[in-house]
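User: Fold both of these, please.

Assistant: Here is the first one.
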Amino acid sequence: MNTQTQEESSIKMQEEESGRNEMNIVVAVNESQESMRACLWACTHLLATQTNVRQPYKFTLLHAQAPICVAGGPAYIMSSDVCYLLELDTKRSTQKILKQALNICKHHNVKANTHVVIGLPKERICEAAQKLGANFLVMGSRDHGVLIRLVRESLGDYCSRNAMCPVIVVNEKVYKNGQEN
């Protein structure tokens, strides 16, 4: 082995140990097919197939869960039993969503972490992406028409303006009939 190759190997090992080359990709997932397509897109387009044991990237599946029990004032108060059942249902739903996204990652040999935040999705996703140190935030889009977007701001629009990292919004037109165009 020549000295240049040894030096390159040594530098590469040092960079891997320090984590400087580690790309951090965060994919926001929910129950929609669009978010699962975004996860699939991220697995197939952002990540090169790696043959080595250590991935040069960190891949995190992020799910924003709505607050479980919110008091609506004296006219609307839920018992602790109802709150417990809602919490149980929400946890099951979150587990199902993350399991589906993890299966997509596993199918493409991508090791993924999961992260769950509780609160308004548009705010919590941006906050979590920043806390996780995301290089990219990937999310799906339902591609509502102009009229609906005038009345109601989309999650992708909000995150693309407020996230502290580049946001990739995977449009549903990318996939037609289950196949990529």
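And the second sequence with its predicted structure:
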Amino acid sequence: MLRVRCLRGGSRGAEAVHYIGSRVRASRLGAGAACSPLRSPASPSQNCRTKTLLTRLESPASSLAGSRELGCVSRKGCMRWGPTQWARLLSESVVWRWRSALEVPSSPAGPCFAPTEFRAQREVVWLGRNLTGWVQRTFQSTQAAAASSQNSCAADDKATDPLPKDCPVSSYNEWDPLEEVIVGRAENACVPPFTVEVKANTYEKYWPFYQKHGGHYFPKDHLKKAVAEIEEMCNILKMEGVTVRRPDPIDWSLKYKTPDFESTGLYGAMPRDILIVVGNEIIEAPMAWRSRFFEYRAYRSIIKDYFHRGAKWTTAPKPTMGDELYDQDYPIHSVEDRHKLAAQGKFVTTEFEPCFDAADFIRAGRDIFAQRSQVTNYLGIEWMRRHLAPDYRVHIISFKDPNPMHIDATFNIIGPGLVLSNPDRPCHQIDLFKKAGWTIVTPPIPVIPDDHPLWMSSKWLSMNVLMLDEKRVMVDANEVPIQKMFEKLGISAIKVNIRNANSLGGGFHCWTCDIRRRGTLQSYFD
């Protein structure tokens, strides 16, 4: 709040000059002043009010009671002042600064002002006149600029709403013809520190690996093979007519610290985990692992480019990832324990604050399906539901899964009315799809060898496929059984090696984020 003199009426800029004179006279002579060369003598009551005003201004903490000259004006109220009002306020502040310098002792019998005082007063008058003019010109130009800016903003709103027809971001489902995609990077990938949330999402046989290598790079030779596989995947996508974008390379081994935790990073390998495209909007997920807190940095330059070209861009609320977000006593002893906990709706992440990975959502036009998992809580799903309503409907589905994390290796929608459903993790709400006339396809058992390292996932990455359109699918070159399954469905399999890249926790769907698919928003459940 600002304590100022209430200024009324439509006075001109010249009045500020007299106002300065009265301030000088009041500061010099007080309530008993007689005459002034600047204006007619002031009445005792006027001088009394002026002295009261100056006293109030000198002691801003004092009460305002008993003075109609003062008021409490909010910033919003000040914004409605005109140029003259601001000139008065500024002029008064200038005179107040000069008050002590201009004070000259006066004789009760002598003239009101000595010649020296009069020259000083004339200088203040000159200063007030120029200050008043400057303030008026400044505010007039500012008001004109504001009006122009408002008109410009209105024009811009009309120009950008709706989004441009050539918006670079547009995807409503998992199967429309793919035109542009982000493919992740394996370079500099690091083993995450072995924290409670990592322990809850990994298999016991790999815990010694995390305890030994947490915070350091994944094995160099393995990373080299994974990088080569992903480069080949990018080349094949380009040959299929798809534009490929890549995240920025980052050194994920660098340690960072927030007020709530410290960690090293993970990787920029799985854009599906952190990004989801819904229509013309890119949504950045907040994530749930501390090692993934800053993962968005790898994609920021790409997303900014899409934003500049017309896409919508939303970042979900970032969790603090403090200890309250995790059940520090989450009991993990066996697969049976995990089944029991999941059936009871207990996970390592609590409901302390919203968190989710984008890979726990899968799209089918107006309907988006999500699961409560070790990395996605109900608050995170609710945030997505509210954010996307009313154009999209977010449904929660669940599975018989001892370690739910990311939906696309459990339930992968590959076409209109066509879904792959993991036989080891049956969906509890599968009747919803059957009643809607959907075809439920059970993929064959994966053939990946038991001795192949899968530090962050299961063998069911075989069904984590990427649809290029309804009739083309990118699939593991070594997974012959699932290739035959797609052939029976009339879908052509594009075979690509990805085994070493699988070890980092993702298949083709995880390693990519479809940015643009040629299609429109439709409902497949009405």
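Residues 115-160 form the longest helix (46 residues).
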